[in-house]
Specification:
The complex is a heterodimer of chains A (156) and B (265). Chain A has 156 residues and is mainly α. Chain A has 2 domains: 77 residues, Rna Polymerase Sigma Factor, Chain: A (Orthogonal Bundle), CATH 1.10.1740; 73 residues, Arc Repressor Mutant, subunit A (Orthogonal Bundle). In chain A, helix 1 packs antiparallel against helix 2. Chain A starts with a helix and ends in a 5-residue tail after the last helix. Chain B is globular and about 60 Å long. In chain B, helix 5 packs antiparallel against helix 6. Chain B has a single domain, classed as Conserved domain protein (Immunoglobulin-like). The chains are: A mainly alpha (156), B alpha+beta (265). The interface between A and B is large, with 51 and 47 residues.
Amino acid sequence: MTKEEFGGRVTTLQNRLYRIARGYLQSEHDCLDAVSEAILKAWQKQATVRDDRLFETWLVRVLIRECVNIQRKQKRVVPMETLPEGAITQPSDYAELREALDCLPQEQRIAVVLHYMEGYSVAEIASILHTFTGTVSSRLHYARLMLRSLLKEDFE
Amino acid sequence: MRQTHWARAYEPIPQALEYRVKHTLAHLDDVPKATRKLSLRTALLALAMLLALCGVAYAIFESITADIFGWSYGGKWKEELQQGDFATMGQSHALGEVTYTIEEMVYKTEGKYQGLYGVVRIAPTEGANIVIMPDDLSVNDPAGYLLHYANADQPIRDDDPSYAELAAQRGAKLLVVRAAVNSITVGGVAYCDCFGESWLPQADGTLLGTVEISDDLPRANSYELNLWVSNWETTPDGIWLREEPGSTWLREDWVVTVSPKAKGE
């Protein structure tokens, strides 16, 4: 993949990458750092992607790893559901949904972000997160239950 | 709810993103890439040879734990860990065809995040015809490389085999392996519920894993470290054989006593 092709694909995916990072990290600054670092790592290692069709899910995996590394390095082990009120300040018409998402345990929130927000299939998510499809389905199930109780809305 | 509605939960996307991505893409060439400097892999191999030559005395002068964490977190970590209290380790535990060995444990006494740090090596048991891989890589990833680390500085050749290809070449089973900290206790009291770990595939076919237990872990004469070790086969397509019928999943707890010695003890 040439630098131009790589840049084109990354640019197409940039909003998606940001939202996925946001599923892990609450600060805009950290999210931008994670996206930026993931792009650099992906460029360095892109030769290891043997099937071009897998580039996107591979890039998401690199990003997720980077988000986890940022959490680990900064010792930000405080789960979002325990963050003090006001930690997220960006205004949005969907603030209620965002707050509900942030109440979910991290693994459920990421499953929801990847599935409902970004449109990945359960099998793709299982591949990205290196887990079973049953586990992903289960996380989505419990996330739906919690979101339903928080937002009084059905999510099928 | 539609996908676009979900996406709005994390919107507006900051304008800084576009600038940041453009800036990053403009500086791709600045990233050191595919140079032949001493890689971690090479350094660790050299270190392993040195370890074989020097035996236990090695720990007095150098530390594989300090080297790896220093590489990962920065030179300050290396210095601080080198000044820590070392536990003489080397205990091994076999599970199926895989052997788990604690290479070293260090209680970090200097700087922030004091606690226990160490290195575990996972290797095929002698005579076993297996290829092992960590669970956070794909069977299609090239074998023996640190793909998740930008600072690994390892050139990867097109003809480097993937884990699946390597197993096929050798007629070997492909096993996913794992070792994780279950708990750590001091005098029967459990500490910490957050343990860090990373896996570093090595060119010799082994895996080096880091263990990091630093949250509120006090200095004690000895710790009971409970590790959960496991391994299972994966197909060349990456399907984990961990479910019945036909599960290949082996797992058990392994309890090790870690007794760091203060300098001069």
